[in-house]
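Handout, section 4.2: multi-component inputs.
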Amino acid sequence: MSHTQFCHLLVADLWVVRGGRTVLRSVSLQLDAGQLGEVTGSNGVGKSTLLRVIAGFLPPASGYASWNELGAKDPAPLAERVHYVGHLDGLKSALTARENLQFGLTLSGRARLPPREALDRVELAHVVDLPVGYLSAGQRRRVALARLLVADRPLWLLDEPLTALDRAARVMLMGIVADHLGRGGLVLAATHESLGLPGALELRLEAQ
Amino acid sequence: MTDTLLAVFYRDLVLSRRIGGGGSLAIIFFLGLVTIVPFAIGPDLNLLSRIGPAILWLGAFLATLLGLDRLFQADHEDGSLDQMLLSPAPLELVVLVKCLAHWCVTGLPLVILSPLFGLMLALNGPTLGGVTASLLVGTPALTFLGAIGAALTVTLRRGGLLLSILVVPLAVPVMIFSVSAASAAASGTVSFLTPFLILCALGLASFALAPIAAAAALRGAGE
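Output:
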């Protein structure tokens, strides 16, 4: 199943104020189906904030982020189209990798790969039934990324996806992202290092 | 959506069983409190049986407060709360289900064990029945009211104390009517049903309203 070719993410004139400080000043962005966006900029410039506002965790002071699906009679809200992988991996240490992914699937709806296959894809087939608490930082990260494959959502918001990943895992992640783009998905990644995929749209945030 | 809510319920039960602490800790705390009271006030059986219902209720209240601070905090700390916000299931219902799971783990065992603990406070049969019935209706109300406090303090690292301060005033009506229901069952001169029905109403009102308040607090917690 591939995503509709006519969906896009529109961020228009977004201002974000946190703790009395303007973090984002008039950020605009358009991401079409099959496109990768890379948000770059120095530490503390508001990359994570931008992703969290788009995911709907934080309210913007003005402007908006919207999700459009041409041809859809009843477009779903943006939050229901988003996969978010942030600094916190959203995994329960006491649950096994499979249970965590199964829960992620039930929470998101729209199944794509079974948890077992998704873990296979991130080369973690050997730890399927191990509690996530026993895994290393990089392995936890991979389980969190496997969640992207378990439930089918078109827009992926990845906050520093390369953190804690080794060289092989980075290549694997690039493959997963490229697959998703090929299926008509959208990826917006906040990152210091480019994912190295051709045709990426760069959004550089400047310090205020 | 029902699947999602069932999954949240089941996950919270599994987590509390694997991590331990929460439920069994509350029961041991409850037992400890009930055990120490006869030592503190002396072996006067008449006095004990008169204040017994209040002691049981105070114990249940404190035991409920004990585990509440982790209700949402654990999910906030590891990012699970973000994932729940992205779910099509309304956050209000997720909160409701989390409260129910929490009550099944901490509140329900207290209700089941309270007749046993009541014996230690020299309560007679009708009083035991009255206290147990009032706990069955009242402890869910405490859990729901506590969820508001838990949601408001979700970002605070040591939110437990503030949570107690926030929840105590909200819990006063529940306390008044539950203890008066239990006392009515003991004396037999006043109707048991009147305070008990008001307690039921308080329970239903908190069931309906507290998840909305808690979900609003959780949405604002990111700011």
